[in-house]
Write a structure and sequence with these properties.
five-stranded antiparallel beta sheet; two-stranded antiparallel ribbon
Length: 99
């Protein structure tokens, strides 16, 4: 899908569209999946995964974890936008004067 994303890991984002249960929620980006065009946000779109018992996880059972949200459904929150604008841009080389 997208080669680059407008959000990065660690940014604070807000969900602007999607299911009513997640719309308007905000959180920190845990993971960006650029090939799928999705992001995983902390505390947003919690899903229940049925985990089979293994040697590492003897108990097994139902585990809650974050699901992914399409990248077009999120925007940077106010704090992250201010930080991005504050970053200095590279200065362009001055143009040579014509004689």
């Amino acid at each position: 899908m997208a080669a680059s994303a407008h959000v990065k890991k660690g940014d604070t984002v807000t969900v602007i569209s999607g299911h009513e249960s997640i719309k308007g929620q905000s959180g920190k980006v845990l993971q960006v999946l650029p090939k799928k065009g999705r992001v995983v946000i902390e505390g947003v779109r919690m899903i229940k995964k049925h985990q089979k018992a293994t040697q590492q996880n003897q108990q097994g059972g139902i585990v809650q974890r974050e699901g992914s949200v399409h990248i077009s459904n999120v925007r940077l929150s106010g704090d992250s936008v201010k930080e991005k604008k504050a970053e200095p841009k590279a200065k362009a080389k001055p143009k040579a004067k014509k004689k």
